[in-house]
Amino acid sequence: MLCALIGSACAGARDEGGTDEADGQGDEFGGSQECEPDPRGTEPEVALPSPHEQLYELELDTWGISNAGGDPVETRTRMNEALAWALDNGFEGVRIPAGTYRVGEKTSDIYTAGIELPGSMDLILDPGATLEMAPNDTWNYCVVAVRGLEDVRIAGGRIVGDRDEHSYGGADDEGHGVCVEGASKRVLIEDIELTKLTGDGVLIVGQSEAGSCEDITIRNSELHENRRQGVSIVGGIRVLIEGNEIHHIHGTAPQFGVDIESLSFTSKDIMIRDNSFHDNQAGDFVNTDGTNVWFQGNTLDQGDVTDQVDGPIVFWKRTDQTIRDNVVIMHSPTVNGLWGVIGYTNDDEPRANPVPNYIEDNVFEGGGIHLARNHGNAVIRANQIDGWMILGSRLSCLRLSDNAVNKAEGESYKFREVQGVASGNLLNGAPVALPMSDDAPFTNSPPHLW
To answer: Which sequence spans correspond to the domains of the chain?
Structure first.
């Protein structure tokens, strides 16, 4: 589902050596005199679930549950029964002792069922506890499912997929560690390892009747070695992804650390901060349709990926985001070139969103900023770029200030058909003259070069 949209992204970008006949035509480009970008939205605040204090210590012998990787259908059935009993008897959650709990029951040709939380509760795994999906051949599964619930906390231990033992019959890209579905609200996932899933570590997805999920937090966790994504947001309002390590995502498209791609739902007011991203095959963060997205204080390192598909940070034209205080480390070009941030448009329709994309106070080591054909507003300020450049074309309202490019030779600031104001920008410590104005397109590189 997700790969259909993201998979086309590579064809939509141009690096600095490409050509684009549409860029050479100025008749469709336009901007207002004395342009002034609209203000960005406020920093998202995400509500946590209500606290739960009365937890049931799961009694394995009482329920006949194996913690040694026993029969997955029996383990699933009895564990779900224990969770429901706990809620019915006044408990607010369940603690799972150490051990390996293999779960999985094929309930249709395409779905293998795992643990299904029965209501508002905590599911707390001992640090030595592992919930493991049994090997299967289905396209879809959830090791733990949260469907239409409120005030849920899942914490501790490990959730492991069947990636290494799965019987693949196609893409088989919808096998997830935790599925937050059906307009669930106030869900906290923390202090947990999610790995070896055939799909995503965490999938947040809305429901057609109820809409998007709300107030979802994923923090202080490790998400790695999943085939499709670390986290997919397919309809999420007020989402916080904080303090995680997300790495080595590879196997089937899109292959990002975090992907916002809402389809028929809405994704907005999302904060992604203080995470460590590295060694992800397509990139670390992609936003196709989310608004008021804040991506800040993260570290992004290509690591050992030498053929990264899209780039560390990618966004599409319907979105708006604040990208600030990040460190982006690139060791080699992606398919698109040495771009730490790249804005896709993929066509010549004007960007309608009046809120600018803010790119500020970031450090780029070995990569730069690419906003070609973005047709709209942008604020690019106080970034440090070592070894590459800032590029933009057909921007109708740009605020470019106090950036520092350090580059031994070649192009550093490269613009065509850009309106806006530039001030305080440096090249190797010396001021750069970029005489932009709000009422006349500025060009400092001739069309025949790109």
So the answer is: 1-40+301-450
